[in-house]
Amino acid sequence: MNTCELIEKLYETNCLETDELLFVLNNMDHESFQQLINRSHETSLKYYGDSVFVRGLIEFTNYCTRDCIYCGIRCSNKKVNRYRLSDEQILNACREGNLLGYKTFVLQGGEDPLLTDERIIYLIKAIKQEMPECAITLSIGEKSYKSYESYFNAGADRYLLRHETASERLYKQIHPKMSFEKRMQCLWSLKEIGFQVGAGFMVGLPGQNHEDYLKDILFLNELKPHMVGIGPFIPHSDTPFAHSKGGDVKTTMMMIALVRLFLPGALIPATTALGSIDSKGREKGLLAGANVVMPNLTPVEQRENYLLYDGKICIGDAANKCRYCIEGRIINSGFTLDLSVGHHISFSGKCVW
Ligand code: SAH
Asked: Is 141 in the pocket of ligand 1 (CB under 6 A)?
């Protein structure tokens, strides 16, 4: 079978053999790329209609004990102005998001050594008590099974933990003193506990090749996460990758589309990183099969301190500006802004995953 035929097979069956997928990755020409994007777009329409779901992102701490080579807030970067939002600032950001119509709040941060489980549980309960119709997503890195369980029992709905790359070789190169097995295990634990789980990976990392992307897709196909974050790697000037080349739009679109076809019911964000390397990057992500956007709710004073990479967009834009900017982009791309809570279809009673 040629690439176009294999894409048709993937579209119809949501599966390919390993060698077939590698063939597709290695033999993507202009025509097959267009076909892949069209089939992916059709698939998201079939599963979620033209809805694009919204998650308000609150970057609540940039303290981090990890030293991920690519990341601007790695602990070795002494130039970072470290901050930690107070409980009240976090709640206010949620309140502001709620007034803008958002019903999911993503609490993201570095692996802050002073962030206790008690505080996370307090925050989950406080947000849920005041805004019971809202979903809470946590994105605070690797924790113990017991900790994850305590967040879930306190009412957290979802957890984002990108696997970053499913290539053990590459993972080890870019994550000093971290364990590939541990990260994977965290994802399986989160799933077992009952979270809607988000995995995901970066595209265009130094040294990343087609076999590595193959591993990403096969891993996702095995884990079957509910959400998948895929964004281009973008160099940060105060990291060892300062002078490396970053990921490109086309490869990122290709990965979004392939993941959409393997996991047709997944929630896939058109990421800020994609919007940062191309002024129409998020729109391109949506057309390639993404169906989530994550406008920023972090207080504007702290935005410039949560720079994971250079050139991050929306650094100076107040929350309401992001809201209307993003709505315009969604509508102009032919989608509608969906302000419902936006659970994965297997959690919304419509389908069994
Ligand atoms: N500490 C949390 C949150 C990490 S930041 C955790 O471990 O999950 C969120 C994501 O930003 C990361 O998972 C990573 O994929 C992405 N990221 C970090 N640095 C980046 C860079 N230079 N370019 C693109 N994406 C980056």
From this structure: yes
